[in-house]
Every structure is written in structure tokens, then in C-alpha cells.
Write a structure and sequence with these properties.
- There is one protein chain.
- This protein has helices at about 5-15, 35-50, and strands at about 20-25, 25-30.
- The protein has two helices and two strands; from the N terminus they run H-E-E-H.
- The longest helix has 15 residues, at about 35-50.
- Strands 1-2 form a two-stranded antiparallel sheet.
- By secondary structure, the chain is α+β, with helices and mostly antiparallel strands.
- It has a domain at about 5-50.
């Protein structure tokens, strides 16, 4: 689903106000709990602001030259 920054901001404001009902343009959504709202907010955030830098780890390997 494609979310907009406006929808993200509206949801964030509703969370800050403690409201469970949110209006997005001509649609109104009533969430069951704050937990549901936070889950959708996280989903929106991940879609709108994807991580640009992929983190990777490199491990060195050392050994003594013992004969």
C-alpha cells in the first residue's frame, strides 16, 4: 500500500493526542488500540523512509604461523 507523508503526519498527531479515530481525506479509520496505531505508523515509516545504508559486518580472521 502506498502511504503519503501527510497520512503519516496525521496518524502521528492522532497518536500524540490519544485519539483512536483518524480521518484521511474522505476516509475515517478507527483503530482498536494504540498498539495497532503504532504498528501502522511503523509500517508507514518503513515505506516512506527506507534505510538507505545497508549495514554489514566484516570479521577479520587471524592465525599464528605455528609449525
Amino acid at each position: 500500500m502506498m502511504y503519503t507523508i501527510e497520512q503519516y503526519n496525521i496518524l502521528s498527531s492522532a497518536i500524540a493526542q490519544g485519539a483512536l479515530r483518524v480521518r484521511y481525506g474522505d476516509k475515517e479509520v478507527e483503530y482498536r488500540s494504540l498498539k495497532d496505531m503504532l504498528a501502522v505508523q511503523k509500517l508507514m515509516y518503513e515505506e516512506l523512509f527506507p534505510t538507505k545504508i545497508k549495514t554489514s559486518r566484516t570479521y577479520g580472521s587471524y592465525s599464528k604461523d605455528i609449525q
